[in-house]
Amino acid sequence: MSAPVLKGPYWATVRQHRGVLRALPVLVAAGLAAVAALRVWAGDPGSEGPFVFPTRAHNLLRLCMEYAGTALLLLPLLVGAFVAGPMTARELESGTWRFALTQSTTPRAWLGAKVLVAGLASALGAAALVLVYRLGWTRVSSTWQLTRFDRGPYEATGPVLIGYCLLGVAVGVLVGQLVRRTVAAMAVAGLLTGAVLAGTGSLRWSFLPVETNTVPFAGNPAKLMPPDSLLVDMGLLTGSGERLPNQACFARTRDMGVCPADLDVTARYADFHPTSHYWPTQLIETSLVLALAAAALYAAFRVLRTRRG
Hints:
The chain is of the alpha+beta class and 309 residues long. The chain is 61% helix and 9% strand. It has two domains: 8-45 and 53-206 and 277-308; 211-275, no CATH class. The chain contains ten helices and four strands; from the N terminus they run ααααααααβββαβα. It has a four-stranded antiparallel β-sheet with strand order 1-4-2-3, with no helix packed on it. α2 (18-42) runs parallel beside α5 and α3 crosses α8.
């Protein structure tokens, strides 16, 4: 049984951008080797006592995961910029897309080949990078700025990264047709993808209602939240149920454990997202981003139909 052979615009697209397509598995393999080596070098954290400082290898692993999370956060922007510029706008700017139409290829098939190749490569590449990142991140996930709720690790550890990369593809083919200048299209597509990523990121923790817990004012504030939770708000409760800022008592007594009688503070409260909200939030955000990607893709084909038949 022979292997499937790409034909027409799909073969042309793969061949035209074969350098990037070949570099992607190399990047994944290099990342996997580096993370695996760091995990082995860092050893088992469970073997260390509670008062033992982190090893040099553990600190290096943590630093690498911090930078890798930031890099993966920028991946959708790079995808959008590449699809908008080198894949779409450059051909329109130079006029080489007309040559493809002389090879019994319709404008719809020409654009569809770019969407399919870029979308498949982006989705598979992002999924592989998420798995590689999680391999190293699980060893340091309880450290500062590397929890599952932090910016960077949140996107790099779930399906939402794949959704944003597909959004970058859709935005790229749309902007590439509208701008038709390689560098300008790259800048616009990257900025638009980044704006959506920032906007949804600022809203994601409002998708699900927070949970609230209270303890008596004299109780232990550490019992307000379960481990690995995301704190949204914390403060004081009066006897009537009114909420006061967490510093309301300290501002007058200069002591966090002493409160003036006239404030009638009886308890402390905390609004938080527990660990169980992580995956539902990932799925909700991914669905929202994919819906935006579908809308951008529909607009891209409408523009193609309007301008090029």
